[in-house]
UniProtKB/TrEMBL annotation:
Annotated SUPFAM superfamilies: Cysteine proteinases
Pfam family, any one: Transglut_core
Taxonomic path: Bacteria, Pseudomonadati, Pseudomonadota, Betaproteobacteria, Burkholderiales
Organism: Limnobacter litoralis
Protein's name according to its UniProt entry: Transglutaminase
PANTHER family xrefs: BLR2979 PROTEIN (PTHR33490:SF7), BLR5614 PROTEIN-RELATED (PTHR33490)
Every Transglutaminase-like domain range: 194-265
Length: 307
């Protein structure tokens, strides 16, 4: 498939809860609507994205739905069910045009600043406003600043190395040294445990890379979204067999902007990827989160399809 031209991607994402007993009421937020606009097009290596169509279907019908944007520019839907219900289904359907990377040459030919100079340039100076990108420089709920993460950077980040090349090498090393193992972690697994076991899933790999980059003073953000997966040769694509995905976006200076890296798949995201939201870590951009009163134990099922 040609990833050098714009592609139309269609995504369906259904989350369903079946309750043991009727839930009396619930309040939920969901972050499922793909981003678009100028923030998506910054940087030589950053793809652009245009939302062509979006539908959010909630069953049973909610008592209230409100839409807002959070501080990172993500679209957030809030809804309430103020009556008893046995189940909850949230179906998100998107049609998105994804543009290719604007820079397709060898990374070694890209004149990016050194990571050390970039890090130093972002230090706070009295009397000057902090750059907007600096908010992604600090530790967050799932990504603490740790010496172990700083030490892990030392093989790839020497003082004069260009930031894009150094980050690319880090992405490759995480992919090489960590094993993807579904179910090996939960969202609350500490990052040091992931570092010790060298096992996890995409959100763990993203958190590790974020932690290493922030530990040396760089600004990096967590990206949630989807990736098109191709079935084995001769096999049909299975409906609902895809999944949400997570990767990393690194600020590489004003001339280049944000550059995306996918340590799970060892590649720069291209037109196979659809960006939903950005934040400091997973806690800022969960697909769905809320509070349910009653209902007992809930059986959760998730089905995602990307075309």
């Amino acid at each position: 498939m040609n990833h050098d031209s714009s592609q139309i991607r269609e995504v369906s994402h259904e989350t369903r809860y079946e309750y043991d007993s009727p839930a009396e009421c619930s309040q939920q937020i969901c972050i499922l609507q793909p981003q678009e606009g100028p923030t998506m097009a910054q940087g030589l290596l950053r793809k652009g994205q245009r939302l062509l169509d979006y539908k959010l279907q909630i069953q049973p019908n909610p008592s209230m739905v409100q839409t807002s944007c959070d501080s990172f520019g993500n679209v957030v839907h809030h809804f309430e069910m103020n009556y008893p219900h046995d189940s909850l289904s949230v179906m998100s359907r998107s049609q998105v045009e994804v543009s290719p990377m604007l820079y397709n040459g060898p990374l070694d030919d890209l004149a990016s600043p050194s990571w050390f100079a970039l890090s130093q340039s972002m230090n706070y100076l009295a009397g000057q406003a902090a750059a907007l990108e600096s908010q992604f420089r600090f530790e967050s709920r799932h990504v603490p600043i740790l010496n172990a993460l700083r030490d892990y950077s030392m093989l790839d980040f020497w003082p004069d190395r260009p930031v894009v090349q150094a980050a690319y090498a880090l992405m490759q090393r995480i992919h090489r040294e960590f094993t993807y193992e579904s179910g090996s972690t939960s969202i609350d697994t500490p990052i040091l445990t992931v570092m010790d076991t060298r096992k996890g899933v995409c959100q763990d790999f993203a958190h590790v890379m974020l932690g290493v980059l922030r530990a040396i003073g760089l600004s990096a953000r967590y990206v949630s979204g989807y990736m098109l997966t191709d079935p084995p040769p001769g096999q049909p694509k299975l409906m609902g067999a895809d999944a949400s995905h997570a990767w990393v976006s690194l600020w590489c200076g004003a001339e280049i902007g944000w550059v995306d890296f996918d340590p799970t798949n060892n590649q720069l995201p291209d037109t196979r990827y659809v960006t939903v939201a950005v934040g400091r870590d997973y806690a800022d951009v969960p697909p769905i989160r809320g509070v349910v009163h009653g209902g007992g134990t809930a059986k959760l099922s998730v089905a995602v399809t990307v075309f």
